[in-house]
Design goal:
The complex is a heterodimer of chains A (234) and B (334). Chain A has 234 residues and is of the alpha/beta class. Chain A has helices at 42-49, 72-77, 95-102, 110-120, 122-126, 137-149, 167-182, 194-199, 218-223, 225-231; strands spanning 4-13, 16-26, 31-35, 55-62, 65-66, 80-83, 155-159, 186-190, 203-208, 211-217. In chain B, helix 6 (161-183) packs antiparallel against helix 9. Chain A: Keywords: Amino-acid transport, ATP-binding, Nucleotide-binding, Transport.
Chain lengths: 234, 334
């Protein structure tokens, strides 16, 4: 059974549909990457999965159970973590307090999970008493991902985790994504850096105008001349 | 040296008293703003309501304080805090929550709170009348005179019992608030919600529970501030009129949404008020002999007359908004 399955999802804001029938499925041990041009509905799809906008048609399943239009906090209880692209930390709280808020619904898991998150992101341990808003962009992204990991999610949704980061930090974040995935967390992320992201993807979904254009393994998409020509800049 | 004692009594003591009261009021305003993002104009009336509860309870049981060696009003304060917190939560459920549910703009909430302020003022007048009443009913206000061990000093430093209680309670409130916001899970969740409400919700934080807790704390602190002011002077139904502007000035001076800023701002405004009405001629008179002959000190050399004290927070407010709109600490700019 797929960890996450979306079937023919239509949705958008205020009656205007941005998604016009998107389908995707990833398994529990996979990294799924959504790529596509600006305005294709990539982030919108992620928000639709996490209950942040209304799905008008279609169905979303988590391990076979319907979760369409469930509220974000119910989805957190069901093992989903979401890292928004912007405003994804509590800037005036310290790094450790940010992580504590991530574990808010399971306070007894806070201590053991804290050690695991520090293992994934060692720089955070040194900065744990510092307000998260004072960190660099890459370290903030680590705090944001760490916060979402605190509930031990089975599925982690990442909205452009490398946006605005230097190439060095981008590779660092992708390496962490693979590590987190290897530790048994399914990952679905939206990325602008399509080539680098597809290189670590088990499954890639190329969206355009709110619909699936190509769906294949990451390697196949990278080597597909048509995908390369239209979406990867040659 | 007597002049220095005069300065301590009229500026240091009086400024600390006023500052403490403004600080506790401003903390409530700033907490409400940081969680619900609107300026709560009914806050000063909540303070008056708290003082009224103490007055009612003290009138009903005037002898209780004698049994424990404290003024009855102080013994009744925890109960009045609970009642005011209850009122605050009730007002939220009845007036502000429906507005929030409709997703109205902050200005609508502000106007709503103005309506609540008028309702509270009317109710307080209805039950308490319009005259000033002392919270000391069966006992007398104790006055401590501290004699200084210098020969040239003949006047004592004067501190009254309610002022001592006020300093202790302010200190307790500040330390308690600090520990709550930094050490407890709920306090951290409150700061998280103030930082980023969407992410707080996505983290599974129950935001409506945080709102209720905010009202409980703000209501409780409002009762403390209102009671301390009434103990120091007297209970008046129009106390809020003299409190609203200074506590908002204090919250803005400190940086809106910043609890420590509100405390600092409270003392800034409190001391500014007392320094502005202080008669500087008293301090300068001993130096008269060093002045040239044509310069004669007037009898009263204060920046503003006592009756115009209220312009001081007004001026501070304008000045801070012009030169440093984010306040001493960097607050949230609306």
């Amino acid at each position: 059974m797929a960890l996450l399955e979306a079937r023919n999802v239509h949705g958008g804001y205020g009656g205007m549909n941005i998604l016009n029938g998107v389908s995707m499925a990833i398994e529990a041990d996979e990294v799924g990457v959504i790529v596509g041009p600006n305005g294709a509905g990539k982030s919108t799809m992620l928000k639709a999965i996490f209950g942040l906008l209304a799905v008008n048609q279609g169905e979303i399943l988590l391990r076979g159970e319907p979760i369409t239009n469930l509220s974000p906090d119910r989805l957190v209880h069901r093992g989903m973590g979401f890292v928004p692209q912007e405003k994804n930390i509590f800037p005036s709280l310290t790094v450790e307090e940010n992580l504590e808020m991530g574990a808010y619904i399971h306070p007894q898991r806070f201590r053991p999970m804290l050690e695991r998150v520090y293992d994934f992101f060692p720089p955070l341990k040194d900065k744990r008493r510092q307000p998260a808003g004072e960190l660099s962009g890459g370290q903030r992204q680590m705090v944001a991902m760490g916060r979402a990991l605190m509930v031990e999610p089975s599925l982690l949704l990442l909205d452009e985790p490398t946006a605005g980061l230097s190439p060095l930090y981008m590779n660092e974040i992708f390496a962490r994504v693979q590590e987190i995935n290897a530790a048994g967390v399914g990952i679905l992320m939206v990325e602008q850096h399509a080539k680098q992201a597809l290189a670590i993807a088990d499954k890639g979904f190329v969206l355009a105008a709110g619909q699936n254009r190509f769906t294949d393994t990451g390697d196949n998409l990278l080597n597909d001349p048509e995908v390369a020509k239209s979406f990867l800049g040659g | 040296m007597n002049e220095l004692v005069f300065f301590i009594n009229n500026v240091v003591v009086a400024g600390s008293v006023t500052g403490s009261i403004y600080a506790i009021g401003a903390v409530g305003v700033t907490l409400i703003f940081s969680i619900m993002r609107f300026a709560h104009f009914a806050h000063a009336d909540m303070m008056t309501f708290g003082a009224l509860m103490v007055l009612v309870l003290t009138t009903a049981f005037p002898e209780v304080g004698g049994a424990v060696g404290l003024p009855t009003a102080v013994v009744m304060l925890p109960l009045a805090m609970a009642l005011t917190a209850l009122l605050a939560v009730g007002i939220d459920k009845g007036f502000y929550k429906p507005l929030r549910a409709h997703g109205v703009k902050p200005i609508v909430m502000v106007i709503g709170s103005l309506g609540v302020a008028l309702i509270l003022q009317g109710l307080i007048r209805l039950f308490a009348g319009t005259r000033a009443q002392s919270l000391y009913i069966a006992e007398r206000k104790e006055i401590f005179r501290l004699e200084l061990p210098f020969e040239s000093v003949t006047r004592p430093i004067i501190v009254t019992e309610p002022q001592v209680i006020l300093f202790i309670l302010t200190l307790a409130a500040v330390i308690g608030l600090h520990l709550f916001l930094n050490r407890t899970r709920t306090g951290k969740a409150m700061r998280a919600m103030s930082d980023n409400p969407d992410l707080a919700r996505a983290s599974g934080i129950n935001t409506s529970r945080i709102v209720t807790i905010t009202w409980i704390i703000a209501g409780g602190l409002a009762a403390v501030a209102g009671t301390l002011l009434s103990l120091d002077v007297a209970f008046k139904p129009d106390l809020s009129f003299f409190l609203l502007l200074p506590i908002f000035a204090a919250a803005i001076v400190g940086g809106v949404g910043h609890p420590y800023g509100a405390i600092a701002g409270g003392f800034v405004v409190g001391f500014a008020e007392t320094l502005a009405v202080f008669n500087w001629a008293v301090l300068l008179r001993p130096l008269q002999q060093h002045f040239p002959d044509w310069l004669e000190l007037p009898r009263n050399l204060a920046f503003v007359g006592t009756e115009y004290k209220i312009v001081v927070p007004f001026f501070i407010l304008v000045a801070i908004l012009v030169w440093r709109p984010t306040g001493i600490f960097k607050g949230k700019v609306i």
